[in-house]
Task: structure prediction
Amino acid sequence: MAGLEITDPEAALGRLVQQVLAAQFGAEFAAADPLIRPSAFADYQSNAALSLAKRLGQPPREVAEVIAAGLAGSPAMAAAEVSGPGFINLTLRDDWIGKQADRQLADPRLGVPTAEPVQRIVVDYSGPNVAKELHAGHLRATVVGDAIVRVLEHLGHDVIRAAHLGDWGTQFGMLIEHAVDVGDQATYDQLAAGEFTAFYQAARTKFDGDPGFADRSRQRVVQLQAGDPQAMRLWQLLVDDSMAYLRTVYARLGVTLTDADMAPESFYNSMLSDVCAELEQRGLAVISDGALCAYPPGFTGRDGRPLPLMLRKSDGGYGYDSTDAAAIRYRLRDLGATRLIYVVGSEQHQHLEMVFELAREAGWLTGPATAEHAVVGLMTGPGGQRLRTRTGEQVKLVSLIDEAVERAEKVIAERYDDPQQRSQIAEAVGVGALKYGDLSVARDSSYALDFDRLLALTGNTGPYLQYAAARIRSIFQRAGLDPAQATGPVIAGTEAERTLALRLLGLGRAVTEAAAAAEPHKLAGFLFDVASSFTSFYEQCPVLSSEGAVRTSRLALCALTLRVLETGLGLLGIPIPERM
Ligand code: ARG
Result:
């Protein structure tokens, strides 16, 4: 039976239902939606009979009875029973579940399929800016983006990471002018110390308060854009120092972005005039008040007038809109990507939708290619207000990490005497808690920062999952066994073993769904379910003190749980501490 080759029980049942539909009602139903859903009364239920009955003009319960009778013959099914108006409650056979678990254990990919077809996918994430520190708002765009990248790569896709580094634009005139004022050495010292915010603010204050400085800043921009050596040298200094800073933060967060993944705004400079010319020639951009503007259809301001993307300002300069237009053309036309994912805050939604629409009009975004804004919501203060320091500034990402790690040290790692071990565990738990807290909520919803909740050892938290993994490792350590050697066979004997085995089989589905929707929280929710099922299993089923085939099976379930948690947490970018 074809359905049996599939590890995932939902997919296997779906296939079975389709086979029965085709056999009983005609081949045209072989691809009908089997509508498999979780059930409170059985392992799953199929709601397929309800819609099918409508199409056939037959009573739903009768149709359901026919399907149930067809399913009953399958070696996977323990029971298929009609309930209510025509639901079919599906219970799988224990030996089928055991056999599927054995196959998952023997599969290096743990039942996770490889993508077919493989796509080239650009993921635009993190969105850092030169001469600015990462702040709390960057956490989500960075962490969620990195998880999306890992998940897509695990499925075999050809992923291009792109951090759209803000390294160009009018503010650089002001920054360079300030660097000239304070001198090379002072600039270098301040930036090497990572004090970008202070540097930026000093420049800003002068710019706002001193018209002469503001004028010189504007001239600097023109010089920079014309490639003036002094302006370029100071600009490069700012970029290099920022990159050094970004590298350290990404490393600490376990984010996979490298220098080579930076797709800075300046990278698109050489393409800007060509993009403008192309759009103008095609009549997609027109001069308005001296500026070159595109008006993608469907976007109007409050006054009802069409909203522009400003492709070239009236002074000839280029800005954020120009760069994004060039970037999307480059990604589609030159890189040949067929899926673009922009992991960016909700406040840029309209901007990005306008860029996508322009790309469609221009014929760059065509055929199978898609562009999506993977909206990330805000991390707010405790009461839902904007997250600010006591003095009203944006909270630095690094101070968030520091605080998470400090608290982790107090709460979790304090029982370790060896200071090095203690700080290693605290780092993994703190960083893990912060990242997992972000990844476990739907990315487009906002959430309030609450360290106590993030660091809790129970509930859907990083530490709970890390603890589950660490605990299984210690079971094997105590027994002097290697989890990689566990073979099964798995016996889905008790309810707790059965539930755990069924849950574990869903890894492939969880990863595939997270990739399709670019929603890592789906994978996080799955891992939490696995860890909860494991906790019940471990409370109810003695492992090391059991014997014979039961012990072998339970060790196999432990090993499988460990591998599923390690794989899943790895895909989310959550570190697992040595011990916990
Ligand atoms: N650097 C930008 C910012 O700070 C985010 C970049 C997002 N990506 C993009 N292609 N526009 O707002």
